Amino acid sequence: MSLFNLDRFRFKGDEGTNSTPKLKKSEVSSDSASPSSDKENKPKTTKQDHKLASKKPLKNKVEGGDSDEDILQNGILPQRKAKLYKTEMTEHSDDNDDDGHDKVDDEDQKIETLQEMFPQRHRSQLLELIRCTGTLEGAVALCLMQYGDRAASRQRKRDVLSEDDDDDVEKDEDDLSNPAKKRRAEVPEDSQESDELKKKLPDQDKELLRDVLQEHDWHYEDALGALRMFADSGHSNSSKKKSSQPKTSSSSKAKKGSSEQKNSSTPSLSGWVVKIPSASVAAKAKQGESSKAKDSKPVEKKKEKKVPPVRRKGEDSEDEDEDERALSSGGEENDLTDEYNSDDEAPVNSEQQQDILKFFQEAAAHELTLISGCSAKRANKIISLRPFNVWKDLEAMFDRDNGLSADLLVGCRVVLKERQVVQQLMGKCEGIARKMFKDVTALIEQGTGSTKQPAILNSSLRLQSYQLIGVKWLTLLNQHKLSGILADEMGLGKTVQAIAFLAHLYQQGITGPHLITVPSSTLDNWVRELKVWCPTLKVLVYCGSIDDRKYLRRDILDRQVDFNVIVCTYRSTLGTDFDRSLFRKLKLKYAIFDEGHMLKNMSSQRYRCLMAINAERRLLLTGTPVQNNLLELMSLLNFIMPSMFSSSTSQIARMFSKKSDEESSFHKDRIDQAKRIMKPFILRRVKAEVLKELPPKVEQVEACPMSAKQKDLYTSLFNKLKRAVPGEKKELCNVMMQLRKMANHPLLHRQYYTTEKLAAMSRAMLKEPTHFDADPVLIQEDMEAMSDFELHNLCLQYPSIHSHKLDTHLLLDSGKFDRLTQLLASLKEKGDRVVLFSQFTMVLDIVEVLLKHLDHRYIRLDGSTPIAERIGLIDDFNNDPDIFVFLLSTRAGGQGINLATANVVILHDIDCNPYNDKQAEDRCHRMGQTRPVTVIKLVSKDSIEDAMLRVGQEKLKLEECMISSDMGEESSMPEDMALLLKVSMGL
Ligand SMILES: Nc1ncnc2c1ncn2[C@@H]1O[C@H](COP(=O)(O)OP(=O)(O)OP(=O)(O)O)[C@@H](O)[C@H]1O
């Protein structure tokens, strides 16, 4: 707790933590009783008073580690934090659920995540996996690969379950909240599906087949597909081509000896299933631990595995040095080779030899570095030793004198197998794409009758033709039992298409229940659009306080309420265990996620929790489907197609996250691969294609020279930070933030309020009735953590320090404000209306000072604006042309809202992620806009913002590359929209 409210410089995510609503309408109404005048007279008084009254230094709170920032950065809270913050979070506006960095820091948290995903696994086992892989993602990958361990872990799970039984009073809720637990109990010992699978794959252990079936929700086809794909990928080379040979070659079996035989009860899918303990054992071996009896066997096995896979005939001695090196390289690299080389003791067959030879002979240096353990130096060495015409050349290469280890061969097999897996996956997807294309053609050729909008839609509203296509496409996906991503550009009416699709389902007798999860700022808009477009659908809004939701939950589960659609914010969907449990229990038909790009991180808890929602199919709506990298895209795809991707998540994650030269042909190939995978599942149209009548959007970058004082301050800050050269990424981020603050407004730092001034002010504060008995040292301590602008506000608030307030010229002293002043004057004169975004609520606070000073009428919406009031503010702006400026925080107002009555967007400060800026721009550039839209980006000249702009533009190029439509493609389809669909689908 602090003596003061140290809002400080709140970065985009922290705005929702302010419990004081910042609904400011001061210029709209002159009524002294209005919230605005309250605000004007007593800015943040309530909060300040509250904090001051507490008289404890803020430091305690910040250092306590459970700061608001922690909450926001962690996305969903770990249990411990969730409990601590329960009350506080519900008091706040439901906003900042919309992002978060989803960092999973400590082991406990990782274990919790893993346990939620793999409830059948024992905690200690998970801990071991986390420790040896070092990352949550690594542990997840191993778990996914460890089907073979299920039999053993099932027994352990049973034990755990029975322990859980007398756990606590929330047992019922808890049990139900864990469908895996429930399913466990329901797992039939034998089922028709497993019998069928056994017939198809007689070599496979029945237990394993049951587990894979269960992973695929007992969908026979999915399970078979996954088993085949991985059985093939893992084994095809040895089993298909040498059909007479058993899956694990006899020679290899012989080498594995008795330890392998003892493990024979462990089901195995050669080449796919990993012998679980290997990685952990490697780690243990590394630590020199003497393993327990049960682990000792795998240690031996691990050692055996370190024998290079390619050996000269008759050579079977192990190279101790190589062994040592392999073990000590540890971590992920070992895991990688293990995962792909459960049969790595098997000699390389002639076909594999050819592939490996080709790779070493032809791969570019950056491709060679994809091999685990192959540095750039080694890659160049390999290239210098070419040509490798025959296998013997390769063997000669791995001479010690060359500094190249035969482990590179193992790594090479991993890379090749990785590619093979992804290729097979793509093949499967491409098959679906072809089939879809055929069906789409047939459907459209049936005539216009099939393209009518659903009859239960409001007949006074008409879907645009491209929207009808969207609905048709969704219908097709549904017919094919596929989920999808509707990725139309912002403002093309994804909401409307989704509603029309639900209406169509309703007419087909699929009346729900469906779940629509949306960002807080769009909740009301969704409810309104549902009501306007399809009043037949009964809508239930699931949000409110924990208590509200508790009653709602009961009503839902007891069927006391009748609804077709539940609309819910991300925060409420994810909220507590009970909320999450509800959506696992409810058998949903469709789960729709608005702004679905929020599911870009497959390692995040948010992702996993939403993944656990019990819906037959999912639909993601996003205007910016690709953000930053291909792995994010894969996360989205994995989210909607879990059965297609689940078993290969780790391969995909690795394949798409590996760093390589972006200009390389290999990288381009990967983009191409991603495009092909995307085809059947993503529909994207851009405004230029389908909304021809929409006026253009023009972007204007305004390079704003800093004010003289600001420039000096920036330079000295820059030099100071440069001297303390930071190494860590975290520190670099902090440096960047410091510079951004200065580039935006000097008052975001503290320099005018010197230590001496603060000492005087803190003594003066004792005259305040709230602080007469406070310790001035503590007051000063708190003050020292505040920015100039915050201190200025404090001076306005307390008469005893009022004289220390800053002069107006200082408040307005920023290069951007100079430019803004000119811009606003000329825009007003032209009759333009402005939407101004900033990522920082404190910047908005200072912009308010400027707007008041210039006598411009404005309203404001940020994360602290109660959800219930947001739509009212949006309506106010859209209905009252006299409101000149709408101030919005990018976080709260950047997504999903409609402000087509404004024609100028000013981005006061650009985002590190250009997609956030794009989202914000398109609040105005959307259906309903009648005037050309100008987007003005204010960039502080010669500051860090220049670089941010450059990097952002580079990032945007990736999107063009990923989702470019091929407008020139020929089409045999009869109608324009058929061509459109084809183009949009990239078919
Ligand atoms: N066929 C239509 N007729 C009339 N108005 C429409 C139609 N389709 C969409 N709109 C309106 O256009 C605006 C933009 O639609 P919507 O909000 O659904 O777009 P969106 O693609 O979901 O945007 P975003 O990605 O920004 O969330 C809304 O006000 C919506 O009511």
From TrEMBL:
Protein name as it appears in the record: DNA helicase
Start-end of Polar residues biased regions: 260-269
Keywords per UniProt: ATP-binding, Chromatin regulator, Chromosome, DNA damage, DNA repair, DNA-binding, Helicase, Hydrolase, Nucleotide-binding, Nucleus
Span of the signal peptide: none
PROSITE patterns per the UniProt record, alphabetical: CUE, HELICASE_ATP_BIND_1, HELICASE_CTER
Sequence ranges of Basic and acidic residues compositional bias: 37-52, 195-205, 286-302
Record-annotated Helicase ATP-binding domain positions: 475-643
